[in-house]
Amino acid sequence: MARYTGPVCKLCRREGEKLFLKGEKCFTPKCPMERRAYPPGEHGRFSGRPSRQSDYSRQLRGKQKAKRIYGVLERQFRRYFRDAQRRKGLTGLNLLQILETRLDNIVYRLGFASSRNQARQLVSHGHFMVNDQRNNVPSTILNPGDTIGVREESKQRTYFKTLKQAEDTRTPPAWVESNLNNLSGRVIRLPERAEIDGNLNEQLIVEYYSR
Q: What residue ranges define each of the domains in the chain, with the CATH number in brackets?
């Protein structure tokens, strides 16, 4: 299972904005974007950011941002794009819906993890059931009506006991249903565009792969 293992805060600095890859740390003064809001690298502090970008540069940055937010590498991301093209409707929206309905993202949306990286780890360790079957594949695409829940054995772990007792401070989106008391959830429907992160520009991704 390929994944990025480098320092994720550098990814935020490269994009010039917070991608919220470290969960709660992103909301504290310890966030590197609060202290070093310039590109990483030897000349990052002095390079500045270009006032005008080429079309290719904007398209590339739009694609890279989406990949980094969802923790997907190029080969898999390109496959998702081809799948989105084959579906009916807008390719850009189809792509975002595919990314949103990944198992690790839904674990994050339901409030079972503070970041997608943490959600991916929890899924990989086999803590979740999908439709009453154990699933440890973060890239599993869920469909409307699918259910997800924490395994009975995993509920005895300190992390999930604390999660169950804690007050949920993040409201799940309307397209999923979360029950922290039972540590379970359900996909109600596919997300609409307004329910997906607004700082993503799917049109730039479509333009990038349509060159």
A: 1-47 (1.10.1050.10), 56-100+198-211 (1.10.1050.10), 102-187 (3.10.290.10)
pLDDT in tens, the chain (211 residues): 555 555 655 555 555 555 555 555 544 555 554 455 556 654 455 555 555 778 998 899 899 989 988 999 999 999 999 999 999 999 999 999 999 999 999 999 999 998 899 999 999 999 999 999 999 999 999 999 999 999 999 999 999 988 876 655 568 899 999 998 899 999 999 999 999 986 889 999 999 999 8
Q: Which of 205, 117, 107, 181 is nearest to 147 (CA)?
A: 107
pTM: 0.80
Token pair, residue 16, equals: 């010039």
- Cα-to-chain-centroid distance, residue 196: 10
